[in-house]
Amino acid sequence: MTTTSSPAVPPSAAAPAAPAARVRRRGSLDAALRGRGALLGIAGVWLVTRAAMLWTLVHAVGHSTNARVEVTMTYHNWYNVLVHWTMPQHDVMWQYPPAAAAVFLSPDLLPFLTYFQAFVALTVLCDAVILLGLLRAARRGDGSMAGAVMWLVTLPLMMGTPFARYDIHVTLFAVFALLCMRHRPRLAGVVAGIGAMVKVWPLLTLLGTPRGRSTRDAVVAAALSCAALLAVFAVLFEDTLGFVGNQGNRGVQVESLGGSALMAARLTHLWPGRTNFQYGAFEYVGPYVSVIARVSVGLTVAGFLLLLLWRVRANRWSGATPFDAALCAMMVFTVTSRVISPQYMIWLLGLAAVCLTSKHTTQRPVAWLLAVTTALTTLIFPVWYDTEILTASTLGTVLLCTRNALLLGATVWSGVRLWKATVLPKAAAQPGASVRPGAAAL
C-alpha cells in the first residue's frame, strides 16, 4: 500500500482569499442597496441633493452666477434666433451640431415657466432619467448599484453648474446608448447617432461595441440616424453647418492641459502672454499658443490611433468592455483637447457611472478618482475662477495643474487597465465564453 503526500501549499496560495472576501462584502452591500427601503433612501438623497444644487444655482452660492449666465444669456439669445428657423452661425460661440437647436428650443414645452426655469426643470428631469437608467442596469445578472450611487453622489460636487448646462441632455444619450448596447445594438446606434447630432462625442460610445454583427448594426444605425437628423434640420433651418468653422478656430483655453502649462510658465515669468475672452471662453494669447494648439490636436489624433490599435488588438471581451472603452476614449479626447470646460466632467461622470453598473468593469478605481477630480474642478469653476484662475495666482495655478495632472493620470490608468484586461497574448486567449466570436475582425 502506498501513500501519496499532498504537495505543500505555499503561503502565497492563500492570497486570493482577501480579494474574494472583498468581493463578497461588495456583493452584500450591493444586495442591500437593491431593497425597497434602500431605493426609497436613494430617492430621498436625490431629492435633497438636487434641491441643494438648485439652491446654489438660484442664490449664486460659490459664484454660481458664472454658471447661471450661460442659460439666461447665451442659450436664451440663441433661442431668440432659432425661433426664426435659422442657426445663430454669426455668433462665434455657436459651435454645436444642428440637433442642439432642439435642446435650446425645448423650454417651449413648459410655456408657463420662464426660459431659465423651464431649461433647468428639463435638465433636472434628464438627471432623474439617467439615475433611473443606471438603477435598471443594476438589475442585470452582472449588474451593480455602484453606478447609480456614483451618479447620485458625485454630480452634486459640481454644485449648480450641471443644471445650467445642456451637457446632462447629451450625457443622457450616451448613457442609454451604452446601456442598450448588449441586447439592442441597433437601438444603441440610433441613440448614439442622435446624441452625436447634439454634441458629437456620444459617437465614442460605439468604440467598444462587440465585434461582428453588433458593431455593423450599431454603426450603420448611427450613420443613418445622423444622416436623417441632418437632413431634417437642413430642411427646417438655415446654415445648419455654420458651427464647423467656429469650432475649428478655438484656441487654448485657460483650463486645458496646455493652458495649465502656460499658466505655470506665466506664474514663473517664463511666458509673457495674457488671457482674452474669445469663442465663448477665456483663452490664452501670446507666443507659443498656436504651437500648443497644434500639439493638442496632434495628441488627439495620436490618442485616436491608439484607440484604434486597441480595437484591433483586443481579443478578450466582457459585458463591461463597451462601457470601459467609451470612458477611456472620452478621457483621451478630453485630456488632449484645447478646451476642458467644467461641464466636461459631467460627461466623464456619466460614462464612469455606466462602467460601475457592471461587476466586471476594469475602471472602478479610475471612476472614483474622477470623483476627486470633479471636486477640484468645482473649486476651479465657479468658486475661484475669477479670483484665482483668471488672475493666474499661485493657488489657482497649483489647483489647476493638480486637477489636470490627476485627469492625465486617470486617463493613462484607464487605458492601461483596459489594455491589460482585453489584450492578452495569443497563447493566453483561449477560446471560451469570454472571447467573442470574430475576434480577428475590426
Secondary structure blueprint with pairings:
Blueprint: H1 17-33, H2 36-58, H3 65-82, H4 100-105, H5 115-137, H6 146-154, H7 167-180, H8 185-199, H9 213-236, H10 243-248, E1 252-253, H11 257-267, E2 274-278, E3 281-285, H12 289-313, H13 321-335, H14 344-356, H15 364-383, H16 385-389, H17 394-422
Antiparallel strand pairs: 1-3, 2-3
Structural overview:
The protein has 442 residues and is mainly alpha-helical. The chain is 62% helix and 3% strand. The chain has helices at 17-33, 36-58, 65-82, 100-105, 115-137, 146-154, 167-180, 185-199, 213-236, 243-248, 257-267, 289-313, 321-335, 344-356, 364-383, 385-389, 394-422, and strands spanning 252-253, 274-278, 281-285. A three-stranded antiparallel sheet has the order 1-3-2. A hairpin with a 2-residue loop joins strand 2 and strand 3. Helix 5 packs antiparallel against helix 6 (146-154).
Task: Using the CA coordinates, give the radius of gyration.
Answer: 23 Å
Q: Number of helical segments?
A: 17
β-strand amount: under 5%
Low-pLDDT runs of 5+ residues are 1-18, 431-442
Class by alpha and beta content: mainly alpha
Question: What average pLDDT do the residues reach?
Answer: 87
**Which strand order spans the largest sheet, edge to edge or round the barrel?**
1-3-2
Cα(first) to Cα(last) distance is 59 Å
Gross geometry? globular
Residues in helices, as a percent range = 55-70%
Largest sheet: 3 strands, antiparallel
User: What is the chain-wise order of helices and strands?
Assistant: HHHHHHHHHHEHEEHHHHHH
Number of strands: 3
Brief summary:
The chain is mainly alpha-helical and 442 residues long. The chain has helices spanning 17-33, 36-58, 65-82, 100-105, 115-137, 146-154, 167-180, 185-199, 213-236, 243-248, 257-267, 289-313, 321-335, 344-356, 364-383, 385-389, 394-422, and strands at 252-253, 274-278, 281-285.
